[in-house]
Amino acid sequence: MQISQKIEERIQQLPEGATFDYQSLMIERGEYVAATKALERLVKKKKINRYSSGIFYKPKQTVFGVLKPNEQELLKTYLFENGKRIAYITGLRLYNNLGLTTQVPKNIKIACRDKRIFASVGNLKGKAVKSYVDVTDDNYYLLGLLDAFKDFNLIADLSAESAIKLLGNKLIELTEKKRKEMLQYALKYPPRARALFGAVLELFVIGTDVSSLKESLNPLSEYKFRIPEDVLPNAENWRIKLEK
Fold first, then answer.
1. Which of 19, 65, 104, 211 has most Cβ atoms within 10 angstroms of its Cβ?
2. What is the pTM of this model?
3. Please, are residues 168 and 161 in contact by the beta-carbon 8 Å criterion?
């Protein structure tokens, strides 16, 4: 089958408004020249549109004309590779989506284990940060929650009482299997994240075995958080020092 035919068939399977690049079309390096020509022909035929260099989208026709892909769709080309998730949005944008802050950042952070990913989507810029474990579609939500525990003191406009309740409820909503996975991922995170995560998990999901987290912490260390004492009554168990 010719590369042009393969590309057209793959694009036909995409929904209108979807973005894609060479990798998401599973084009091999040796096929890039032929693929470039094939994509150029499709652009001229208006079957696809070019968003930026190497990034295209399948146009969605509306009564107002062709609808450009939204920000979330455009970011997918940075978060996925060969159809598999390799990165996720973290930082203030994530914490806003979780309901931890009302602040909306101008730029975002993109966490990936093995690559430094920088994005440019309209006026939005993405900064690369390193994730603590390999990112997949199954674990990126859990890693985002762990990031929130790690950055708790740094989240702008955060209400500590509301944030602890929100994070605790999100842990309750997880299945037991997911909580066990999250415990394993947490061991890769800095001690302050492990301490706060462990304390909240112990408080909200009674009966969970958190011994691995406690044993991973240095008994001589102390972790400071700006949280009211009545909100985290088991703080002392985790060597957490509460500050007003």
1. 19
2. 0.81
3. no
